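Quick question, first post here. What does this chain look like in 3D?
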Amino acid sequence: MITLEHIYWLAGLMMAGVSLVNWRDRTNRRRFNNTAFWGIYGITFLVGSRLPDLVNGFLVIAMVRVASIRGLGQGADSSSPREREESARRWGNKLFIPALTIPLVTVAGTIAFKRLTINGTPLVDVKQVTVISLAIATLLALAIGMLLLRPPVSAPIREARRLLDAVGWAAVLPQMLAALGALFALAGVGNVVSGLAQRWIPLDTPFVVVLTYAIGMALFTMIMGNAFAAFPVMTAGIGLPLIVHKFGGDPTIMAAIGMLSGFCGTLMTPMAANFNIVPTALLELPDENAVIKVQIPTALILLGSNILLMNFLVFRR
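> Answer (accepted):
Ran it through. Tokens below.
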């Protein structure tokens, strides 16, 4: 059976390859920092589940120390901007084929893999079917891209290295913030949030509870920088005790739309550096908040729509 552990191994192998390419790149003055950072990150994927929590914690601290000492750097690109522009003009819209393969195969796999079994055993872990489908779709898109474009065999890992080095430490933020959200939930921060909300907000009607939960998800995401960090806190403090238990709401709908509400906060905060600050740096925009300013109207409209959708759907059983 294909499990999430196999996906971690693939990610770990990719990080190991990125680390190796950095090691061999003498044009990067900080290649040793990059090698150590991505190499340690690869270890957490490859053997992290087999290591004690304390050791994993030390690995994370080591990554922070590596990134804080002189920072990470970028080496020479494997191709020039002119070569990439010429390739884009030559292939045109065919370049969308690998990109569109990922969402299409992910959706199809999410539906199909739930039903596929071998001798009565599911082909994939049904609890992680979407993530596993996404990984399979990514591998298939890579194969299609290699067959279509016929680049050198080393191109995928070199391009992965180029992108990861451009993004830098922000690439690990989603995973770290999700872990931080879980720690906050275990520490009882959700109970504190619930107590404060019930003290200052009249949570006596379903709509007010939904409004508080959705806006709270967006605001807490803006503070934490990631909806995965906000979700366990707000769901433990507001969602489950009030929407589900007190007013009988559907937990599945609450969770799905709640996460979307959190993503609205992601669009409006510089704390989500990997989404909002990194693109600004890659595009060399003069205003580091340019991306956020453009996204705010869309985020507010989506947040309002999520509130109305949740109020309409979550209590319909």
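The mean pLDDT is 85.
Strands lie at 117-118, 121-122.
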